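Standup notes, structure subgroup. Blocker cleared on the adenosine-5'-diphosphate input:
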Amino acid sequence: MDNNHLKNILKEVIMPGENINIIDKGIISNIEILNNKNIIIYLSLENPALHIRNKIYEYITNIIHKKISNDIKINFNFKKFNKYNNIKNIIAIASGKGGVGKSTIATNIAAYLSKQGFKTGILDADIYGPSIPIMFNIENDYPTIINKNGINNIIPIINYGVKIFSFNFFIQNKPSVWRGPMVSKILHQLIKNIYWENLDFLIIDLPPGTGDIHLSIMQEFLITGVIIVSTPQKISISDVKKTIAMFNIDNIKVPIIGLIENMAFFIDNEFPNKKYFLFGKNGIKKLSNNINIPFLGEIPILEIICESSDNGYPIILNNNINYNYKNYFIFIMNNIFEQINKLILNGN
Ligand code: ADP
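Run returned:
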């Protein structure tokens, strides 16, 4: 038994629902023969649906048992295929509920990364509450479309060094199209045509909760990890748990970078040392501990955060505000870097 022999045998396995064998399809990235009883097969697939994977595993196992020996144990190592190798890290920002500050945090993360010199893009996929164009002060802009070799490339708008694409550019006044199965179709079509060039980081602002758009985004991209934002009250926490459960589903399986507690407490500018815990104390911090997911940090309720969002000028870029306020974001950013490094080291 050697690699070529195995590859020839595997040519007899046809991709479920297609007319091509798995070798010609290119889904087998490596075969490792450990000894004459144990082999590891590495595969990468664009469509990671569990039932398709299981079928392929079953066909491979059957044919190897039939053609070589029933004693061979086959281990499968699956990696989702990365269509976007021009983008180094893709971070999704999610939440259980709307209005908890997900877009505010996505905006500040993207602005910070760009300020640090990283090539950064942001994809606003929150089609039901698209606030990214306001937060980046590009509300009235429209992306340019350039036809290259018959393909329409959508050129993202750039502000504060961040390349910005929002589905809102294309859906203003057309909400009815954005229901049901049409959503996924249009989304995939548009995403394919966005011309990001090379990025170190793509930040994706997901809609709140769990739904079709999440599934489409997870299918399209190989996500490095997801950050979940929540306010601390009990009512929000049960939704956070549902969101976490979605990212843990077997054929989605996106690593969770950590949780952020937004609107953790209120600070009055005149008495900056006094914290008012309007929505309860440490709700998300405690949840992180209980379920063993990293806690990335907390952000207080500050008038200046809301003002910055409304004015389209991310607070993290504003040099005229109290540095202590910016430190809440910087602390979180350092934790995010640390967690991403861990994920990369663990081979995720
Ligand atoms: P989501 O994306 O979760 O729907 P947004 O980021 O759009 O939420 O935030 C909702 C509103 O709350 C916005 O007006 C935003 O400026 C404001 N906001 C978010 N976080 C804070 C905060 N920490 N302090 C004050 N206002 C905030």
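Discussed briefly. The longest helix spans residues 323-345.
Next: hand off to the docking folks.
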